[in-house]
Amino acid sequence: MKIATWNVNSLGVRLPQVLDWLAANQPDVLCLQETKLTDDKFTHAEFKEAGYESQWFGQKTYNGVALLSKTPANDIAKNIFGFEDEQTRVIAGTVGDVRVIGAYFPNGQEPGSEKFAYKMKWLDALREWVRSELAKHPKLALLGDFNIAPEDRDVCDPVAWAGQIHCTVEERDHFQKLVGLGLHDAFRLFDQAPKLYSWWDYRMLAFRRNQGLRIDHILVSDALKPRVLACHIDKLPRKNERPSDHAPVVVELS
DNA sequence: ATGGCCTTGGTACAAGGA
């Protein structure tokens, strides 16, 4: 079973690239972030044509998430239960025997800002909800654009990024608290080459220079960990014309 | 060469992203 996540930075713009990627990679599940489409504009017919069922949760201009799967997802949840939020950031469903939670974590803008405070509250709420989901569904994957680089080795220039958004102690503490629920960063279950990232700024020729961050993650539960065969970041779509600034992350399960 | 982008809404440029 192959499960993937990709922040597409506008599905309206990126749909052809997503369809190409699905055809080439054939994941069983793909979680999308930053679809930026209202629900009436979601491209479920195109995905159906490509062999995928869709669940989606969008809004105008910003955010927006979706869960694509070869077999229908059940027990769909949208956003964090009990956490009032105008923003569409979470979609969850059960595919086969795996509970899949796809999330677009808040950016946070800069430490000390209102958006950073929202990120902290959102992370608190997410953790408590994921705790309850884990109790109900031991075989669980939490994946998406976390907007957190967990460690210095996930950062191209740790000195320049020290204390900056995505790299603050507060954000990294939150990441570790999520891991503390009984989750594992699938990427780090394996020996990986150094300097592998999932996001590169559009500016400054950052991709060509590999000046990136690893902020897109797949966390797997204790019960799922023994089934993890591989995890990798697919840089190929970042080389497309008009690419998303993020690359897909893929985990393979037995 | 130390700065270099992209998307949306809406039709000029501001806001947000990371």
From TrEMBL:
Site entry (Important for catalytic activity), positions: D216
GO-annotated biological processes: DNA repair
Catalytic class of the enzyme: hydrolase
Annotated site residue numbers, Interaction with DNA substrate: H246
EC number: 3.1.11.2
Keyword rRNA-binding applies: no
Keywords recorded for this protein, A-Z: Hydrolase, Magnesium, Manganese, Metal-binding
Active site: Y104, D145, H246
Cofactor info, note text: Probably binds two magnesium or manganese ions per subunit.
Site positions for Transition state stabilizer: N147
Names of required cofactors: Mg(2+); Mn(2+)
Endonuclease/exonuclease/phosphatase domain ranges (all copies): 4-246
Binding site residues for Mg(2+): N7, E34, D145, N147, D245, H246
Domain of life: Bacteria
InterPro entries in the record: AP_endonuc_1, AP_endonuclease_F1_BS, AP_endonuclease_F1_CS, Endo/exonu/phosph_ase_sf, Endo/exonuclease/phosphatase, ExoIII-like
GO MF assignments: DNA binding; double-stranded DNA 3'-5' DNA exonuclease activity; endonuclease activity; metal ion binding
Family designation: Belongs to the DNA repair enzymes AP/ExoA family.
The name this protein goes by in its record: Exodeoxyribonuclease III
Source organism (scientific name): Piscinibacter terrae
